[in-house]
Structures are given as structure tokens and as C-alpha cells.
Predict the structure.
Amino acid sequence: MDATELEQLERTIAQHAALVTIGAVAFPIRLFGAHLQVVPRGDEPANGLTGPQMTGDSWARVGSRIRQKAEIALESGPNWLRLDALNGLWQFTHWAAATLPAKLEALTAIARPALGALDGLVISSGLLLNQGDLPDDDFSARDGGAILRRRVSPLRVRETLVIPTVATPPKTAEFWRGVYAAEPTWLAWALERLALPSPLAIFVERDAGEETVRSGGCTRPRGPSLLPRPHPRVCVDSQADILLS
């Protein structure tokens, strides 16, 4: 599904939601392989959310998409390609239910021929809901590839594959693996760099019988914001495809 199709699907869902809000019954939405039914809050949808299986030619499209991005990367200078796969790869495929070693082997076979002169690919699921309380896990292949799963928050999880080309020095792939293995610590590291309290200090309240919180080594009354004022505004721009040098 490209950006235009996604926009059309979102617009159609919004229109059906408006009908349901005023008490009307909206017809099922059938667009681009998806079958959706908008129902009032509290009602049970018939069969949940389903989508097309990505098999056969769909795997070929994954390879061609990586090749397109690799060509763009080569023109702009980076050595590695960094992608978040937001095309349903981790949601609607048989591959998504495979073991970590099987996932790495299958995607490596598709990605390496598409990378051209790049040193490698880092591709992730993006932040997913941690359904079933998936634990942290990782696997390293003999050829230098790796796949990691990390719980980023109580409700979110990310899987990341590091796929170097055959000629890539092992230390480069090890660097990427180390970066994503440490992802659960990223927030604490960023707050420390900005001289802000740690996540534990921000969100954990003292249970001392008084309406106070512990933040940055001092006890303050609970307020609408637990961050010191003034504090910098932080803007995060999530992109589906990011090129890194």
C-alpha cells in the first residue's frame, strides 16, 4: 500500500466513523486487500482486523523496495541503509511468526542481493505492541548478521535485523548490534545528556504519605509537570525510511 492508497483508506475510515457516531450503520470497507468494519465503541467487531497474506510476489516486492532505497542511499553517500518496515511485514505474514534465526536467514537472502555497493542494512519493525509479553532475545549468525528483540517499554517491543554484506568488516555490524541492544536505555541516556531527571525519578512517586514526587535528587510537591521548568521541548519525527552515514 503506497502513501496515496493509505491516505484514501484513512479518509474512508474517518467517513464511516462519522456515520457511526450519528447512529448510522456503515457498510464494510473493502480497499487494497483490507476488510474493515467500523462499529460503535463497546461493540465487538465480527472478526477483528485482517489483511492480505504477504507471500509469493509480496516477498519479491520487499526485495525491490530495499533495492530502490539502496540506490537512493548510494547517490547520497551513506554506507548503511536504515529502514523501518511499515508495510505489514511484521503484522500480516507467515514470516512474522517464525523464530528469530529463521527470520534473519529469510530476510538476509532477499536483502543482500539488493544492497549493491552498500555495507549493509539495518531494518526494524518499528515500535510494536508487545502482544503476549515477548521477552528480550537475540541471535547472531556466523556471517555477521544479527537479529534482536528488545522491550522498549511495558507495552512496546522492537525487532531489529542487522544484515551486513559479505565484505563488510565484522566490527561495523557489531556496532549496530550494540546500538540496538541498548535501546531500552536510550531515554535515560538522552535525559542525562540534557541534565534532566531519569525516567525513574520522573515517574516513580515517593510513598511517604505526602503528595510529593522524587525528581533529580530533590522532593517537590506533585504538580501538572514532573519536569523542571523551564525545560526544552523535544520533537521526535518518526520516518518510515531513514538513511544513515
Observations:
- Residues 206-245 have pLDDT under 50 and may be disordered.
- The chain has six helices and eleven strands.
- The helical segments are 3-21, 57-76, 100-111, 170-181, 186-193, 199-203.
